[in-house]
Each structure stands twice: as C-alpha cells, then as structure tokens.
Amino acid sequence: MPRKKTNDTEKPAMAAGEEKALKLIADLVEYAKRKLYLNKYDAVYAENQLLAEFGFDAPSAEKGEPGELQKDILDPLVKYAAERGLTTPEDALLYETKLMGYVTPAPGEVITAFDDIASAKGPEAATAYLYDISVNSNYIRMTDIRKNLKWNAKFPSGDLTITINLAKPEKSNADVARAKAMPQTSYPKCMLCLENLGYHGNPRHPARETIRIVPMYLNDEPWFMQFSPYVYFDEHCIAVSESHHPMAITDATFVRLTDFTDMFPHYFLGSNADLPIVGGSILAHEHYQGGKKVLPMFSRPVREHYAVADSPDVSVDILDWYNSVIRLSSVSRASILRMASRILEIWRSYSDESVGVLAHTDAPHNTITPIACKENGRYVLYLILRNNRTDEKHPYGIFHPTEDMHNIKKEGIGLIEAMGTFILPGRLQSECIKIREILSGGAAPDFKALSDPEHPLSKHFDMIVQLVSEYGTSLSQKEADKAIVERINSTCVKILECTAVFKSDDAGREAFARFMNRIGAEKV
Ligand SMILES: [Zn+2]
User: Is the pTM of this model over 0.85?
Assistant: First the structure.
C-alpha cells in the first residue's frame, strides 16, 4: 500500500503531555465558567490567552471538566509549565496566580456585579459574592487555610479563639536568599496599595492577579474593600484607603467606621491603633479590618453602666473584658460620634500615675483601638484604651506581654488579638510536638542543653521547666497535648490582661472609674 504523501504544512502529532495540558486548560476555563461566573465571551477570550501563554495554536478537542482546582488542574498544569521552562518550581505560586488571573473576571466586571447584587439582593448577598470569587479564584487559598490549627479556649471571664497559623508557609533559607537578592523597588509601595490590583509579584511581594476589590467612600474619601487572604476569622475583610498614608486615629476614624457599618451592617469594622507596640503590623498605610462579628469580645456583657448627663441618648458602659474597653451605643449617629470624639480627645492627654498611665513622656503614648458595628439598628462603638509607653523594666511595653510570654506571642497586639482572636506563629506546632515528647518521654530533660540559646526550644525554657515540675515526664501523649494547650490558653489570657491600661484589681477599677468621671460619665 503506498504511503500517504507527507504534506509539509501538516503538523506532527501532538505529544501526550501537550494534549493533557490542552485538556487542563479547557478544564480550567470550564471551572471559571462555573465557579467564577466567567461569562461565555470572556471564557473564549481567557482560553485564547492561556493558549498563547503555553504556546499552543488551538484548544483541546475535548470538553473541559472541572475537578478539584488545586489537585486536578493547577498542580499538573504548573508542573507541565515548569517542565517546559515557563516557570520554575520556586516561582510556582507566582505562576499559578498568573494562570488564575487569566480566568478570574476582570476587576471592573466584579465591581459591576457586586453593585448589581447589592441593589437587587442587599449588601450581605454582595459581600457573599465577593467572598465566593475570592475563594474560588484561589486568592484565598483555602487548601492552605484548612491546615491551620484552631480551637476555642473556654474561660468564665471570656472565651478566646486561638489559631496556629500554618497557612503561611515558613520561608526556606533559599527563599529568603532569593528575596534578598531582588533589587528593592518602590512599586507597589506596600502590600495594601491599590497598585497591587493585578500585580505579578516577585520573591519579595505576593502575586495579586486574582485580588478583586470594591471601591467605596468613607468620610467622603476614596477607599476600597477586599478580603484578607489569611482569613483570621469568618469573612475577614480589609478596608483600605486609596492613598498611601500612615494610620491615624482621629475623629474622622469614627466617621469612616460608622460609614462602613451603615453600608455593611452585617460586618464590624475596626482600626488598629496608630502607635507601635499597640498597633498592627502595617502602620504606613491607613486601613481597617472587619468581617463577621464572631470575635469573642462581641459576646461579652457590660460590666458597669454609666450615664452622661449631657448625652442621654448614648449608653456609655465598661465592657466585661480582659482589657479596658468602653462600649458606646446609640440610635443617633451624631451623638455616638460626638461621644467617641470627646473620649479620644480626653484620653490622648489623660495621665494617672497611680496606675502607670502617662500620656506623654518623650512621645505621646495614649491611643485607642476603635471597633464599630451595628446591633438591632443601634450604632455601637467599642473603644479599647491603649498606651504604648516603655520603661527600663518593660522595654517591650508596660501594657504589652512581658518577656516570659514572648515564646507564644512577641509581636504587637493589634485589634484582632485585643478582641480575643489569637493568631500564633506556625513554628509553635513543631515546637509543641517536641515539648510533648519531653512531657511523655519518661526521662528528665537535659535542661542544660535546653537553655542553650541555639537550642530550637530555648525560647520555651521557662515554660518547659514549669510544665515538667507540674506534670513530670510520664504523661500520655494526649495528656501532654492537653497540658500544653492549657498553658497556651492561659498565656493568651495573661497577654490580654497585660494590654489592659486599667487592671481588674481594685486600684485599676477605681482608676477606670476616675477616667469615666473625667469624660463626664457617672456610674448608675
Ligand atoms: Zn500602601
């Protein structure tokens, strides 16, 4: 039989790997149509862009079938890309985000959809849509978030929520070296700037092709809302100013927070304080944190009721919580804002030496962590009084966890922790396993080795000494775990108590009452 004449323009048969990659591209586009609301036209467009990215001329003949995004589509597709030299294993996460960026509806499209849903079904449905997009685009990496260890710690004076953060992968030495070798750039200026929208990222800066935001006006200034990729609690969102300027707690803060809760009454919004030690990790760009009202502080009752003669329509109360919280509530927006401004102004310059509160030494120390929400149509503002003074005895802060607690938490105590939701470093998991081995090992630990600063458990030295003297070293693994978790829980309570400017002892309560009198409030 004569062989068919070869046609020079005919392509050689496709290698199996290429056919599989084409099918994965089709799967990804089908996934986006179903899970990211990618419309028919944008789906054609996205598939053509993906074909160009991979150097293919035509799509798969097979129809796409979405499976599990990470395992069935992204992992094999990124592996294929690495084999073809389109990316490297080190840049896999950046590349994966780039691919998801092709199939995630464009920012303008998402904003229009958000507004349409908000007008048709209300703000709760609109934020649910944005959250859905943020999860399904893998901007929020749920497979990583689910690795977090999370538990509730029950205490009569207020429960806490504790998370060991395993979602943030520990950086390897090679990653650190790569990031160091990168030239320092000033674009985007920070992790929160609007310019992150669609940014491709680098070893120093996460890829943000999949972030989607919703613009809004707070206090008549342009701001936008996005979800946090770390989901420290349910629907954890961030409101970000469009301009890169430092955090500042002013009267305008209360206006912005209440503007937000007027728009999204199903969410709270709070600001970190504007001073180091008592603030959050990013002080350079004004932003607030919000989400569902699931943080433990929200479920606490009032401890003491007060009344302010010239503001009868505002309830001014002290909350029954570990640190010093004034809870305001009112049906009147104007009245609650006026009261919050009065308290801020007085607190900024308020000193009470008998309890170590000094408003000013070399720099101002008093500030507030404010949190706003709505309850049954009433405006509610929680004002957590803060002070960041240090002295020789407390170089880390007088109202900050002391050094013996730094093995659990050393960083600033921002609003999320101050409200009872603790995010602890991922290293604790492996360290706790090693401490469990000591408590269940049957032999006396080598305290000399443990006290060596180079030892991986040296930071836990005091805690291990206490645990061993209390429980010995013959616990079962389960008993050892329980003992360690209880120690972490009680340390978190102590950390919160450290942040109280007015302690819960008699002297502290009397000092708190004096401050309440100073703002014109009388106990009822
Ligand atoms: Zn910025």
Answer: yes
